[in-house]
């Protein structure tokens, strides 16, 4: 994201009076050289490497070596790793190690990317951070201690918690709502991101002032690039003569006073926003320092010049890393305000610039990113289970690990704040999609190889020669009962398990392909296990025959009903019933009418329809909507004139299909809802399956400058209060706020995994498999933005191809749960995970080969208590000693990792799913025996508790303590004291705990 987006804001802010609360005294400015390097956005990673990114590291390393006083902070690891592995010479590598030792080059944040905070899932945030930290620690023994989240569009309250867990001493953000900066929000405080973890994981937080992370590029006497003497990066190739556009005038005796005045004036303006005389002065911006030589050659004399007049100017200056600044600030021993768990979302830069469009932009990419992450999660645990206690077949572990590493990289990359946000150019989106798709292909191959590996066995009971095998892996650490859906080519089938027993199944015509059939199978799969099913064509497929055939669903059709003819009198209602709900559909409109929930015996009126915001793309006509911004002028209007309905009633699943037509006479529908209720047969676990109404949507292609929402209107007296999640980790309360302008857009919030609204007794919960924007624009209403297609004539958007002319059709899924608070509280977390981590179905990959029978390699199922989630089980492959001193000594001796992946270390992370006080039973601390958790991997020889990203032994981690108004916190300097635990551990509400586990090899 570029500096240009700041210009309107800067103009406004220059007119503002700063708070002026700073104590008297000379100012000490910390000049922190940095380059903001977006991993994607307008240019692909490869294009960026070629044009400037490689040159940043090459020239910075050389220039730092030339001046003892010079400093630089490095942020995004993806670019650094590409440079390190593919560009850097041995001499440069040697220089890097020396600069790190001397503290002149500092890695901050240390993730592969600077992840978005609004639409990313916290599992993926941890993954991308872990991926970068693992590399830094293995290669240099370095553990980043400060964050540098300068560009994400708004700040989530999950971030301070995760960064504290990763061992950071301070957190830095920048983009918060302009109103808050104008209202002189205190920009430094101690943040308690989680209400349950509270002081334990609080972290000092610095919000950048109004200038954000860029140095001013406009100074009075120069119309070029201010303090950027190296000018502007050039694509695709750096200019051969080294002369870049817009290079600032070199510092000379004639102009040095002017430069000094401009710098000092800016330092003083920034200082006025802070309580101490220490000022962070970021020197850099997007794609800077590709020619560090010219940068430092001009800044060196300028800093000397200012320091020689420090007394007169009232300002002294020094090069600094971010750590230098925070250390100096920490040493002042100031007492700070504490902030609670509220986030900084949404984010507006101007009255009509609400950055709430990107919550939905490029919905297809958002969906793919999450599916890739879920597949990786499954692949990781399946591979770990394959390797321990002993590899069960001839699979090459190095190849297997490579498949996982490739997908780890791709899933990390797409968490970037111009990636999963949908704010990138089309060619960069293609790059992310290619990386994800090829990573997914590799992991699916790996999973199929694991299934097919090992001794083959006779196939009695499984499918015969003409049939198919399907293998289904459950990646969650609980037994899951769910519906598996396959598309097959024949109308009559029987489905059997490994022992030849019939499995409940249902078949119906496909809505997508006329000659194909959809087969639903009721599968019950133990935790971290897979099961095989045989699918065999039957002759008759008649119900009531002796053969255990899949039952055939019957279809009821309801002709087109027009919106304008909707009556307001008594309705003719059609019920669809399962054990938990009765969904009533109105035959006069073909819309949903209401839902009766069995447990409370309450009927809630509920209708759903698609609406569109018609938005402006012409700058001359006023503010525009684009890939970032949502700027509706008017309320949303219905996007349909007629609806057709089909009810496909079956013994296992009943599907309600509603097709919405834009015009009365159109042949093709633009929108559809497929709602599915499951009828769980006796003897199967129905708790989760019965309680969800699965809805899959068909949305698009949209007309130009339309933003499509699904609005659900109910008679719940919600008082227009909505709850939506931060990154799938915790909920935020979102009361509707009336603004003097742009209220519709500013009441939009991100939903990453869940949202709900409620009244005194019932709650309507929505669960999601990808991020969307969500809002309550009326009492009892919730609307989910599902898709956007936009075009505008803003030169900058056109120049970079960032207008979001997205013509795709998207098929997002929501699960709806309705019920008393207590029931939905108990089900929310596990249902959310069941949607996120649906069993992996290996079908085509097995190509008719009979997989090995489970009897030959039987693994014990893994079952955790219902409030505890196995957040990861993997073999990371890092090659470093868990003992820090030993690791550093090894590095000094020249043993520099990477030689061979370490397959012995197993990474295990557990997450308590509930907040303190959320549920009388599930919110209790839970004690588990780790040996039992990972049963089947062999005898455990050692357990080490580690920081979130694995780099610290928590018993040696001493985070800084910052004084607050409520006193010095005891917990924030260290992790909560824990007795040296054996394999039995107690996990408290919302805790995330990370372990290295070692097993005895067999
Ligand atoms: Zn950026």
Automatic annotation (TrEMBL):
One of its GO terms (biological process) is mannose metabolic process. InterPro entries: Gal_mutarotase_sf_dom, Glyco_hydro/deAcase_b/a-brl, Glyco_hydro_38_C, Glyco_hydro_38_cen, Glyco_hydro_38_cen_sf, Glyco_hydro_38_N, Glyco_hydro_38_N_sf, Glyco_hydro_57/38_cen_sf. Residues 353-436 form the Glycoside hydrolase family 38 central domain. GO terms for cellular component: extracellular region; lysosome. It catalyses: Hydrolysis of terminal, non-reducing alpha-D-mannose residues in alpha-D-mannosides. Binds 1 zinc ion per subunit. It is found in: Secreted. GO terms for molecular function: alpha-mannosidase activity; carbohydrate binding; metal ion binding. Keywords: Glycoprotein, Glycosidase, Hydrolase, Metal-binding, Secreted, Signal, Zinc. It is an enzyme of class 3 (hydrolase). Its EC number is 3.2.1.-. Its cofactor is Zn(2+). Residues 1-23 form the signal peptide. Belongs to the glycosyl hydrolase 38 family. This is Alpha-mannosidase.
């Amino acid at each position: 994201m570029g500096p240009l987006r700041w210009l309107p804001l800067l103009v406004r802010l220059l007119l503002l009076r700063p708070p002026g609360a700073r104590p008297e005294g000379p100012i000490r400015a910390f000049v922190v050289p940095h380059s903001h390097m977006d991993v994607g956005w307008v240019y692909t990673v490869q294009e960026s490497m070629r044009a400037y990114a490689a040159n940043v590291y090459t020239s910075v390393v050389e220039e730092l070596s030339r001046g003892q006083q010079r400093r630089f902070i490095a942020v995004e690891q993806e670019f650094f790793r590409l440079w390190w592995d593919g560009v850097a010479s041995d001499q440069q590598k040697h220089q890097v190690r020396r600069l790190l030792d001397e503290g002149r080059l500092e890695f901050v944040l240390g993730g592969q990317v600077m992840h978005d905070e609004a639409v990313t899932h916290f599992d993926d945030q941890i993954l991308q951070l872990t991926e970068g930290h693992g590399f830094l620690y293995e290669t240099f023994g370095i553990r980043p201690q400060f964050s540098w989240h300068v560009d994400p569009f708004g700040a989530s309250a999950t971030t301070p918690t995760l960064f504290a867990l990763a061992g950071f001493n301070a957190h830095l953000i920048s983009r918060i709502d302009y109103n808050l900066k104008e209202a002189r929000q205190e920009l430094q405080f101690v943040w308690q991101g989680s209400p349950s973890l509270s002081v334990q994981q609080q972290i000092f937080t610095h919000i950048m002032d109004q200038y954000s992370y860029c140095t001013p590029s406009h100074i009075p006497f120069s119309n070029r690039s201010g303090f950027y003497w190296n000018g502007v990066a050039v694509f695709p190739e750096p200019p051969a003569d080294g002369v870049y556009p817009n290079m600032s005038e070199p510092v000379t005796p004639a102009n040095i006073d002017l430069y000094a005045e401009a710098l000092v004036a800016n330092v003083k303006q920034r200082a006025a926003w802070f309580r101490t005389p220490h000022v962070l002065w970021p020197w850099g911006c997007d794609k800077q320092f590709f020619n560090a030589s010219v940068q430092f050659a001009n800044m060196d004399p300028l800093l000397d010049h200012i320091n020689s007049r420090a007394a007169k100017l009232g300002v002294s200056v020094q090069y600094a890393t971010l750590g230098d600044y925070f250390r100096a600030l920490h040493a002042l021993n100031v007492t700070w305000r504490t902030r609670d768990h509220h986030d900084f979302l949404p984010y507006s830069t101007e009255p009509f610039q609400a950055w709430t469009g990107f919550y939905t932009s490029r919905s297809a990419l958002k969906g793919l990113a999450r599916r890739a992450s879920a597949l990786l999660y499954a692949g990781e645990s399946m591979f770990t289970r394959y390797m321990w206690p002993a590899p069960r077949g001839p699979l090459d572990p190095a190849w297997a690990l490579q498949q996982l590493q490739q997908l780890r990289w791709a899933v990390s990359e797409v968490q970037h704040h111009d990636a999963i946000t949908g704010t990138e150019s089309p060619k960069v989106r293609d790059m992310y999609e290619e990386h994800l798709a090829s990573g997914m292909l590799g992991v699916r191959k790996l999973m199929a190889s694991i299934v097919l590996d090992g001794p083959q066995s006779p196939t009695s009971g499984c499918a015969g020669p003409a049939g198919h095998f399907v293998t289904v892996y459950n990646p969650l650490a609980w037994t899951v009962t769910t519906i598996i859906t396959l598309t097959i080519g024949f109308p009559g089938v029987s489905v059997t398990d490994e022992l030849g027993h019939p499995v409940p199944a249902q078949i119906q015509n496909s809505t997508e392909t006329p000659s194909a059939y959809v087969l639903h199978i009721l599968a019950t799969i133990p935790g971290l296990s897979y099961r095989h099913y045989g699918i065999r064509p039957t002759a008759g497929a008649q119900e009531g025959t002796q053969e255990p055939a899949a039952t055939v669903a019957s279809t009821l059709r309801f002709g087109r009903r027009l919106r304008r003819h909707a009556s307001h009198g008594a309705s003719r209602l059609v019920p669809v019933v399962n054990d938990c709900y009765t969904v009533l559909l109105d035959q006069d409109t073909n819309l949903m009418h209401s839902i009766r929930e069995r447990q409370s015996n309450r009927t809630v009126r509920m209708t759903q329809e698609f609406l569109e915001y018609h938005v402006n793309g012409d700058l001359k006509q006023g503010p525009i909507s684009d890939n970032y911004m949502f700027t509706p002028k008017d309320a949303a209007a219905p996007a349909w004139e007629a609806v057709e309905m089909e009810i496909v009633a079956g013994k296992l699943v009943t599907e309600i299909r509603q097709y919405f037509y834009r015009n009365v006479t159109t042949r093709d529908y633009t929108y559809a809802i497929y709602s599915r209720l499951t009828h769980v047969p006796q003897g199967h676990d129905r708790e989760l399956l019965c309680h969800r109404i699965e809805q899959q949507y068909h949305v698009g292609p949209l007309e130009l400058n339309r933003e499509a929402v699904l609005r659900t209107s109910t008679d719940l007296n919600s008082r227009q209060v909505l709850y939506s999640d931060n990154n799938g980790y915790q909920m935020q309360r979102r009361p509707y706020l009336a603004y003097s302008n742009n209220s519709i857009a500013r009441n939009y919030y991100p939903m990453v995994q869940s949202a709900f609204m409620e009244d005194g007794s019932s709650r309507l919960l929505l669960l999601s498999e990808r991020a969307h924007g969500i809002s309550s624009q009326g009492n009892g209403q919730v609307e989910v933005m599902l898709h956007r297609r936009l075009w505008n004539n803003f030169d900058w958007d056109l120049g970079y191809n960032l207008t979001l002319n997205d013509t795709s059709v998207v098929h997002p899924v929501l699960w709806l749960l309705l019920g008393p608070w207590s029931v939905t509280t108990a089900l929310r977390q596990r249902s959310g995970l069941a949607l996120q981590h649906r069993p992996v179905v290996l079908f085509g990959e097995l190509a008719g080969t009979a997989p090995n029978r489970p009897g030959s390699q039987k693994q014990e199922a893994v079952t955790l208590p219902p409030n505890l989630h196995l957040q990861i089980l993997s073999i990371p492959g890092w090659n470093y000693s868990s003992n820090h001193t030993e690791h550093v000594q090894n590095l000094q001796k020249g043993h520099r990792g990477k030689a061979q992946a370490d397959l012995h270390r197993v990474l295990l992370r557990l997450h308590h799913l509930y907040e303190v006080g959320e549920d009388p039973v599930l919110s209790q601390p839970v004690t588990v025996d780790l040996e039992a958790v990972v049963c089947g991997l062999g005898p455990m020889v050692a357990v080490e508790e580690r920081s979130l990203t694995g780099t610290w032994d928590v018993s040696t981690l001493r985070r800084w303590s910052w004084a607050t108004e409520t006193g010095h916190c005891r917990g924030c300097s260290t992790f909560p004291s824990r007795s040296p635990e054996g394999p039995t551990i107690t996990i408290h509400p919302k805790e995330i705990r990370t372990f290295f586990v070692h097993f005895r090899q067999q």
